[in-house]
Amino acid sequence: MEAALSWLFPAGHRVPSGRAPSFTQPLLPPSVATRPQPPPGVLACPLPQARSHARHATVGWRVDDWADHNAYYVLNSRGQRIFVQTWRPHRPRRAFWQRLLPRRKERGIIYIIHGLNDHSNKYTRVAKAWVDAGYVVIAHDFHGHGRSDGYRAYTSSMQNYVDDARHTIEHAKQRLPRRLNGLPSFILAHSLGGAVAIHLARDAPHSTFRGVMLTAPAVRVYPKPILKLFAPLLATLAPLLPVQRLKFDRERRRARKAGEDCYNVRDDPLVVRSPVRARVGYEVLKSCEKIMSEAERFRVPVFVAHSREDRVTNAKGTIDFHDRIGSGDKTVRLYDGSVHDLLAEKRDMVMDDMVQWASSRL
């Protein structure tokens, strides 16, 4: 039985001998499976290893040099630990006479939602740009991503990602000092995270978010014909079957040849490089259909950025979504090139546009 199932699982996962894996008891990578689990239904306390992991980000500076940083775990509704981290503008100790001078106040809160196969530490440089602009930044790892529990880059339902994001945001706000509770909140999301953000903001109370910023949102994708045709069947019979590899490496090789400062996933062990699995692909396709069919209900101010020749998510789909939504405050920016991850390859240009957009809506 184990040999028959092993080809469906990514490297490093344990297949229980003699029985099929249970989706209610997810297979965990060895580093997660050996960790002691917190009591179900209880908010996990900050863990030393969580802070240690988060401080060793994929950039060349210490987080504590430019931000007050905190990392911890929360439990989702399925008993999985979700890794969360926050960055706040640095507030160093001041001399007595300096305390008479006004402090620089935080301007708003940014919730970062990463894309498929990614994790929150990949956005440390993005977080620094927002912190330098006076914002508090909160980010979490999807279940099955980064340092969170679960199958690597797998979910049985897109709604799980949405529910985890909502749950994480609620807990993160409770942990912030009271003086920050009334700050305007924004979402910044990329690719699949953009789809999660759309579902989240569309169904949230009107005053929850001041705006949503999306880069290459997964509102229309490029599935293989076989996946599009047999997605429901494959998702049911072989949910873990690898069906499509994303074209990130090709884009990054092209960007490096052009001399651009791009993110190298080969140097990041937390980035999942396995192909998209059948169930995940099917959930993405269903999500795209729902986003387009309910676009009129989306009434939150939105900024959308996309590369014109992106081959992972469709820029024409982004324009179509922009035209359909019911929001009266909407902006779309198209950038030259075929880069999918704008926040990694064209970070400075896109961040300048986003910071200016958010600051004008405070």
From TrEMBL:
Residues 105-346 form the Serine aminopeptidase S33 domain. InterPro entries: AB_hydrolase_1, AB_hydrolase_fold, Hydrolase_4, MAG_DAG_Lipase. Transmembrane segments: none annotated. Pfam families: Hydrolase_4 (PF12146). It comes from the Eukaryota. This is Monoglyceride lipase. It comes from Gracilariopsis chorda. The lineage of its organism: Eukaryota, Rhodophyta, Florideophyceae, Rhodymeniophycidae, Gracilariales.
